[in-house]
Amino acid sequence: MKIKQYLTIGASVAGTLVAVMLATGAWEPLAKAAKSAQGPTFAVDPSWPKPLPALVGSDGVAHRWVTGEIAGSCMDKHDNVYTFNRGWEIGATPAGGVLQGNESGAIDGQDATASAIPSPPVVAYNGDGDTVAGWGNPSLISSNAQDDEGWAAYMPQGAHGCFVDYQGFIWFGGNGDGIVQKYNPQAANTEGAKATYVLQIGTKGMCDGKSTSSNPFSSCGEGNSFNSSHTLLNEPADIAVDPDVGPVSHMRGDIYIADGYGNHRVVVFNAAGTYVGQWGTACSTDSESCAPGTFGATGGGHPHCVVLGNDGLVYVCDRPNDRIQVFKKTCAVPSVNGSQPVCKPVRIININGFNTATAAQRKALLLAGTRACDMDFWPNIDYLASKSPSSQKDIVDVDLGNDNTWLINKASGLVLGALGTCGIAPCPGHSAGEFAFGHTTTVDSKGDIYVAETITGRRIQKFVQMNGQ
User: Fold this and answer.
1) What are the helix (H) ranges across 173-292?
2) Residue 333 has what pLDDT?
3) Given this model, what pLDDT does residue 94 score?
């Protein structure tokens, strides 16, 4: 399907920007705190994005798209926001669809309207909220007799992270199998549901692990510790591509993968997809006492994000341990004979630096437990990495434990405030500016912030910078 074939139906949401930001280190009511904010302030745009397109089927009816869990979000050089969603991983037969599996985030024909259809796996929006692209191959194989999920036959199972690189290619991973794929978005949008990748790392149906089960995917998943393969992955969570020449590969375009849910490592491949090196292993327990350079053994995603800063360093989300670990690129040491190299980070940012919060306030704030789920720098141009001209003065951290999105001073590690009406109290919520399982974030060249939600949220929201800092 090409985007020009779609018919948009419905009216856009009326209204103006509603200022909902917050906060400073002083834990005041949001309305009061916003007046004395030390950092940038933001407002949610409740009219973004505009209503999704509909596709007129053979029955002459326009079937509205519905997205599932939006598990990945990334930005191209034109400030188009690409999302990777799980709506096509469905457990019922939608209008004009095919019975598929029961993966988390699925939708069926009763979502939104009786004639709804899943959106394509990849949906892109421009800054005005218009849908500018929709594509991806959603074909699934039959579910294994031992499992009620229909496994993706082509794209990564369990849609997860995405990244747009310096050449404009888009990368996708999945926390349900062992592959990362690279796409040409212009070709893919023309191919629609038949979109094909131009490079794949890993092998579909195989994960870096050991299994004697008849189910080819049974070796995938958290808890595995077989993280030494030079060719296989295990439920990769995120991707970043370096436009610079790598210090180990001596090539431009190194691919950093948070090989995260099953392997607890950051693994690096060169632009051709050849193994360069890796670092990290699982910690025996999940706490801030885990040794530097190790990642949480359970808790969903470890590491869960990988982001390249303009300081030449690699920022990695250790989600269950509530921290961001910062590494040098030279940590990418080749593993030998199954070794698991651990590299000491140059810095650890714990997601608990709440400045002037009292003990009682901090206890209430952290009721659900913090999570370093995903991050981006603010302001930032992701694909430029070390060449990003912005100051990267702050870090935007998505905390799915509390359903807040923190704004953290990069230099001090102190939390300045939080996006959205959730403020300093745990959510979840479904109104504009609230979060329900916030999962990933990305920042555009204007300094606006986008936060995507999975599980019960299943949407992406835009927060517009208000005070021009």
Assistant:
1) 185-191
2) 92
3) 43
Rounded Cα gap, residues 401 and 372, in angstroms: 9
Task: Report how far residue 9's alpha carbon sits from residue 111's, in angstroms, rounded to the nearest whole number.
Answer: 17
Q: Is 287 exposed, middle or buried (0-12, 13-18, 19+ CB in 10 A)?
A: exposed
Say what the pLDDT of residue 434 is: 92
Phi, psi of 415 (to 5 degrees): -75, 125
232: which residues sit within 8 A by CB, 6+ positions away? 178, 202, 203, 206, 207, 208
Report how far residue 109's alpha carbon sits from residue 338's, in angstroms, rounded to the nearest whole number: 47
Beta-ladder partners of 405: 398, 419
- Following DSSP, what letter does each residue of 355-391 receive, concatenated? TT--HHHHHHHTTT-----EEEEES--GGGGGG--S-
Residues 305, 324: Cα–Cα separation, whole Å: 9
Q: Are 400 and 373 in contact (CB under 8 A)?
A: yes
Q: CA 65, CA 53: separation in Å to the nearest integer?
A: 6
User: To which residue do tokens 């299943």 refer?
Assistant: 458
Taking the C-alpha atoms of residue 257 and residue 236, their distance in angstroms, rounded to an integer, is: 7
pLDDT recorded at residue 257: 98
Q: 409 and 380 in contact (C-beta within 8 Å)?
A: no
Q: What is the DSSP string of 413-426?
A: --EEEEESTTTTS-
Q: How far apart, in whole angstroms, are the C-alpha atoms of residue 406 and residue 372?
A: 10
CA distance 182 to 190: 16
Which tens digit of pLDDT belongs to each residue from 374-421?
A: 999 999 999 999 999 878 999 999 988 888 898 989 998 888 888 888
Report yes or no: 264 and 250 within 8 Å, Cβ to Cβ. no
Give the whole-angstrom CA distance, residue 108 versus residue 115: 9
Residue with the bigger pLDDT between 418 and 7: it is 418
List of residues 6+ apart from 199 with CB closer than 8 A: 181, 182, 273
Dihedral angle of Cα 97, 98, 100, 106, to the nearest 10 degrees:
10
Cα 418 from chain centroid (whole Å): 19
Which residues lie below 8 Å from residue 138, measured CB to CB, with a gap of 6+? 88, 118, 120, 121, 152, 154, 155, 193
Residue 31, pLDDT score = 28
- State the average pLDDT for the chain: 80
Residue identified by tokens 């704004």 is 407
More confident residue, 30 or 395: 395
Distance from C-alpha of 68 to C-alpha of 437, rounded to nearest angstrom? 13
Kindly report each contact of residues 409-416 with a partner whose C-beta sits within 8 Å and lies 24 or more positions away, as own/partner. Answer: 409/39, 410/377, 412/353, 413/349, 413/350, 413/353, 414/25, 414/353, 414/354, 414/355, 415/25, 415/351, 415/353, 415/354, 415/355, 416/23, 416/24, 416/25, 416/37, 416/38, 416/39, 416/355
Which one, of 462, 370, 469, lies nearest residue 43 by Cα?
462
Q: Pick the range with the lowest mean pLDDT from 249-258, 285-294, 385-394, 399-408.
A: 285-294
